[in-house]
Amino acid sequence: MIHTLTLNTAIDMNIFCDPLQPAAVNRTRQTEYCPNGKGVNVSLVLHHYQQPTHVMGIFGGFTGRYIVEELRKQHINVTPAWVAEPTRINIFINDGSDEYKLVNPGARIDDEGKEQILHHLQCVAPGDYLVISGSLPPGIESRFYSEILVLCQQKGCEVILDISHPVLRQLLEWRPLLIKPNDDELKEIFGLDVSSPRRVREAMQTLHQLGARNVLLTLGAQGLYFSNGAQLWFCSAPKIELVSSACAGDAALVHSSAIGLTQTIFPCPGAGQRHRR
Fold this sequence. Notes:
Elements: E1 2-6, E2 10-17, E3 28-36, H1 38-48, E4 53-60, H2 61-73, E5 77-83, E6 88-94, E7 99-102, H3 111-120, E8 129-133, H4 143-155, E9 158-162, H5 168-171, E10 178-179, H6 183-190, H7 197-210, E11 215-218, E12 224-227, E13 232-235, H8 248-259, E14 266-267
Parallel strand pairs: 1-4, 1-8, 2-6, 4-5, 8-9, 9-10
Antiparallel strand pairs: 2-3, 6-7, 11-12, 12-13, 13-14
Helix pairs in contact: 1-8
């Protein structure tokens, strides 16, 4: 079973409009709402590919109920930790040429919310996977990640990390199965430059030395790299019309962890591997 944990869930409000004008009434052409939060996104993509998945996370108010109800309508198993404050709403505006992202910090979480999460995590079992993905909401400190990793290690559950918090460097000591940084996160958290294939290879080696067993590096429109410590693969990104960038990295994470990234890409010649299809 692939469990996902989203500590800072959200509703995505996607707005499509003409180019924005200041000090004017900007009318929209279309508005869409969807459940969000990086772990929630992972489960949605897993479900799309008919992979069994279980959503765990923190939800509150009418917005939290909306997310849980929408997931259950799709027959996705959800175990919510309920809190008093409403779950946040994030806004993505596409004006035909540019995308604007307005991301809220999220509801403040008290000790009861954290205790609910630790209680729900008791369900993980040997052979399971837990994808911890997304940001920390107000009220939860970074040491909570370590509590979760201790529990998973005791239960024999493999952990996949997709977090942008500086504590990621310390968490590599737990030897997670996979981490999924992007280029900005590598620079900010580890001080690593990935501006060329050679530097990507060097960065991957550093991450493996720090404890990461597998690394998926996403570069947006430039594609992605995957390393298992022995080989390095590269996959280019197709040129498409941007509707929304939300969930793109989460979809890549699903392919690497559940569907088999090495079946769809080929070793990177610039990283010292033979180019083959």
